[in-house]
Amino acid sequence: MEELLEILNEIDDSIDYENEKALIDDHLLDSFSIISLVGELEDAFDISIDAAEMVPANFNSAEAIYAMVQRLQED
User: Fold this and answer.
1) Report field, pTM of the whole predicted structure over 0.90
2) Which fold has domain 2-74?
3) Where along the chain do its domains lie?
């Protein structure tokens, strides 16, 4: 989780990722940020994030992102 938070802070350090639960719904992360985040996650965690995973539920919070990463690492 610490590595994920570092990646998120590199993308936008003005967001409180540990407490924010609506990163997508509240438009805190835009499409460019999401594309950057996906690339960083794929590199850092050696995963592949398919288009089917690109839904708000997977990106609304650091916890949701981390859960997706863990699930994809198991595949």
Assistant:
1) yes
2) 1.10.1200
3) 2-74
